[in-house]
Amino acid sequence: VRAGARLRPLPRRFFARDTVTVARSLLGHLLVHHAPRGRRVGRIVEVEAYRGPRDPASHAYRPTPRSLIMYGPPGMAYVYFTYGMHFCVNVVTETRGRAGAVLLRAVEPVGGIEVNGGAPLQRAAAGPGRLTRAMGIDGRHNGSDLTRPPLYIADGGAARRRMIRGRIVAGPRVGIAAATRRPWRFGIAAHGSLSRPFARSRRAARL
DNA sequence: ATCTAGATCGGCT
DNA sequence: GCCGATCTAGATG
User: Fold this and answer.
1) Which end of chain A is less crowded, N or C, counting CB atoms within 10 A of the terminal residue's CB?
2) Which helix (H) or strand (E) holds A45?
3) Please, which pLDDT band fits residue A203 given cuts at 50, 70 and 90?
4) Which residues surround strand B, with CB < 7 Å?
5) How many CB atoms are closer than 10 A to CB A111?
């Protein structure tokens, strides 16, 4: 992605689908933030699907003030604060009235992302908390529309097709009790920007 | 009003 | 591998 390249936001209908399908489909697309100090871009390499009332691991297992956004229209950002210091960003899925969201867990830095400390750039957004820090995302973005600037998901183009071809793997969601274990974590096999490796390379269902 | 677990991370052992 | 940081939504009294 060239410095001045035009990036096309994905349309809202992209997000108005089954949550697990949207999660897999997001791999290879771009997360873009027109931040105060310039445009930051990352290619999505790891996500997790969280559904609604049938998914005990989801914040939307019951409707609460915090999770109401997940019951709203698709394509909006659900940002929450956790462990006293980290923000996590989700993309709301499904149609209005049906809860669902995809947690963005890792992106490969493509532009405008700075290294933190002595860590390699490749690891700067490897994990949901690091991702929001690297991209300049925080609680102010909760409820914002991800189909248009300043914060949006853009089409990954040909590079996306190359990245995902035969390389999508699935596994259990991170930090979720075994009782609700579901293979709803998706990523690019053996990619250097994953939050952590996928244990077994079970290939995910094809798109 | 108070309690507690948490979709985490970095540093240390 | 383990632990502490530092806050809050949600649950319970």
Assistant:
1) C
2) strand A38-50
3) low
4) A 48, 50, 57-60, 78, 82-86, 88, 90, 101, 103, 116-117, 119, 127-131, 173-177, 195
5) 16
Do A91 and A102 form a contact (C-beta atoms < 8 A)?
A: yes
Which of helix, strand or coil describes residue A162? Answer: helix
- Encode pLDDT of A19-50 as tens digits: 999 999 999 999 999 999 899 999 999 999 99
pLDDT band with cut points at 50, 70 and 90 for residue A16: very high
Angle (CA) A44-A2-A126 rounded to 5° is: 25
Is residue A187 classed as helix, strand or coil in its secondary structure? Answer: strand
CA of A81, C1' of B3: distance in angstroms:
19
The pTM for the full model equals 0.95
Contact, A124 vs A113, CB < 8 A?
yes
pLDDT digits (tens, 9 = 90+) for A48-68: 999 999 999 999 999 999 999
Closest CA to A49 of A79, A81, A25, A73: A25
